Amino acid sequence: MTVEETLNSLKRGAVEIIPEEDLRKKLESGRRLTIKLGLDPTRPDIHIGHAVVLRKMRQFQEFGHKVVIIIGDFTAMIGDPSGRSATRPPLTLEETRANARSYVEQVSKILLQDPQRFELRYNSEWLENLGFKEVIKLASQLTVAQMLEREDFKNRYTSGVPISIHEFLYPFAQGYDSVPIEADVEMGGTDQKFNLLVGREVQRAYGLPEQVAFIMPLLEGSDGRKMSKSYDNYIGINEEPAVIFKKLMQVIDPLLPRYFELCTDLEPEEIKGVLEKGGMVGAHRVLARLLTGAYAQSLIPPRLDRAFYEGLGYSLEAAGHDRDAGSVEVIRQAEERYYQVARNLIPEDIPTVAIPPAELSGGAIPVARLFTLAGLTASNGEAKRMIQNRGLRIDGEVVADPNAQIALEQPLVLQRGKDRFVRVEVLKGQTSNAERQT
């Protein structure tokens, strides 16, 4: 493959490459490039929005380059202000490292772990012992006016929302990460553009060639808002296949083309064909199968394209008509569960919780206590509130009385909402309080 062909392949899906000519020159040099991505472990999960950038890094690896994942265990204690409307609460070093362990495991589902093409670093290695003299040197690279050009800072400043001085230091800390590893390219979403460009300034100050800022789009959550657990529109790459399938089937219709473009490698004309031939339901099904099948694997395939999809036993042209044609059992089970729930049926593969007989009085248990012991509610109070809102069911029937006593003479299926089920039964081999008293 020529340099131009490689460049064109890498450019696909990118929002901006600054400057593109520098990337071309670096590729023409023929040497192995160092591709950097910083991840602040503020949460323990990586979602498919992160995967948009990580899959592009995997592409760099396939071309023989080395990716360096920098876990921002130190910068997470500052809190990345990018896109924030308020100061982010800082984390302790212990909290960030606990989250980082989960990050490392999940990144390995997407990135090749060959030591020649992968390296993992923690920025506490160099930032924790950085002297005040170096901090002053870093801070001298930009003016306050330049910092206030950032959209998030500008909005907060004009709205009178406080900006702490330590938040100004975050871009410099992230930029300094590019110095010890001598990054050639730094990856990031559109919200990271300012920080990536600061990295170029910092490298110049330390006499290093400037990195290329490789900017990828941000993927919205399934409802169109920012992808976040608090909005329940978040799709984690390590979630159960049935959960991933369900969440992808719930992506709002207007976002479907964007999910195909950013999360798969189908060609534009193929995406158009799926949307037109299968309709929205069929197109959702193709997306859900593709990504469920990919993230169920220990290492996702390098390309999530027609060949991968058809290798699962499906036809791209029959998007709306081949629900049972899949050859991969994990997808079949996830899809079958989704349709069982959609038809108000109770899935068979649900967990069973044994209720200690000591919880029963006269063979019965308060309904709120039952749901709490089953793990479907956090407290008896929450269970009662959900019952009042008609949000809990037993064997498919809505629970109407929050003070009801439930007999556990046989296993029962408890349900919260549309798709959370638990089967409960009395723990065998023990007796209840009432039986012991007789």
Automatic annotation (TrEMBL):
Annotated catalysed reactions: tRNA(Tyr) + L-tyrosine + ATP = L-tyrosyl-tRNA(Tyr) + AMP + diphosphate + H(+)
Segments carrying motif 'HIGH' region: 41-50
Top-rank taxon, per record: Bacteria
Subcellular location: Cytoplasm
Main subcellular location of this protein, as a coarse class: cytoplasm
Chain sites annotated for binding ATP: 229
GO cellular component, one term: cytosol
A single GO BP: tyrosyl-tRNA aminoacylation
SUPFAM superfamilies linked to this entry: Alpha-L RNA-binding motif, Nucleotidylyl transferase
Annotated signal sequence range: none
GO molecular function: ATP binding; RNA binding; tyrosine-tRNA ligase activity
The family this protein is said to belong to: Belongs to the class-I aminoacyl-tRNA synthetase family. TyrS type 2 subfamily.
PANTHER family named in the record: TYROSINE--TRNA LIGASE (PTHR11766:SF1), TYROSYL-TRNA SYNTHETASE (PTHR11766)
Assembly and interaction partners: Homodimer.
Xref: NCBIfam families: tyrS
Protein name: Tyrosine--tRNA ligase
